[in-house]
Structure formats: structure tokens, C-alpha cells
Amino acid sequence: MYRKFLVKDNDQFNPEFFSFVIDDAKMIREQTDHVLPTFKTEIILSFLKNHSLETEWLNVNPELAKLISSGSLSTGKLKSLFDSCQDKPVFRQQMEAFLRQELS
């Protein structure tokens, strides 16, 4: 798999080095401002990390699920960054924790 970003084994996530993460999270917040908050952050993070949604979420937050599955939700570079750090658990967990705060 081609990795757009080079994340090294001992790298720590720092939003100052990935300023687009803040902008992309803001863009997602604005695009999803009108949908129910039920599992909203979990659904978005799951999609960014795994490119998939749990079936249960389709029923609890159908509007957000439709927004994501239709391809209407713009995610900027976030999916690429998650793809680039698949095998870097510390970096990935730190980025996920940061995004949890930004998306809530």
C-alpha cells in the first residue's frame, strides 16, 4: 500500500506538525453539525481508520451513515494519515485521542 505520509516507529503525534488535521477536523465538524450526536465521533473515527461503518451505527445515526456512505463527507487528508500510521499504534492512538477532542 502506498503511504502518503512518512510516520516513523518512534514518532509522536503533534498537531503542530500536521496542521491540516485541525482544519480537516473543523471541516468535518461543520459538515456534520446538523446530524444527531449519537455515536457521531465513533462513527467518523471508524470511517477514517477502517474505511467502514458498523451495522448498528447505520440504524442509530442513519443521517451520518448516509452522509459518509454517499461519499459526501469530505475528510481532507485524515484518511491518508490514518493509512500511513496503521502499524504505528502510539502515533495512531495519540492522533485518535486528539481527533476525539476536536470532533466532539
Blueprint (SSEs and pairs):
Blueprint: H1 20-31, H2 40-50, H3 55-60, H4 62-69, H5 78-84, H6 89-103
Q: What do these coordinates show?
A:
The longest helix is centred in the last third of the chain and has 15 residues, at 89-103. The protein has helices at residues 20-31, 40-50, 55-60, 62-69, 78-84, 89-103. The protein has one domain (20-28, 36-103). The chain contains 6 helices and no strands. The protein starts with 19 loop residues before the first helix and ends with a helix. By secondary structure, the chain is mainly α.
Strand content: under 5%
The N- and C-terminal alpha carbons lie at a distance of 31 Å
Q: Pairing-aware structural class of the strands and helices? A: mainly alpha
Number of H- or I-type helical stretches? 6
* Total domain modules: 1
Average of per-residue pLDDT values: 92
How many strands? 0
Helix amount, in percent? Answer: 55-70%
Q: How many whole angstroms does the radius of gyration measure? A: 13 Å
Order of helices and strands: HHHHHH
Low-confidence sequence ranges = none
Q: Which outline best applies? A: globular
List its traits.
mainly alpha; 104 residues; 6 helices; globular; single chain
Short overview:
The chain is mainly alpha-helical and 104 residues long. It has helices spanning 20-31, 40-50, 55-60, 62-69, 78-84, 89-103.
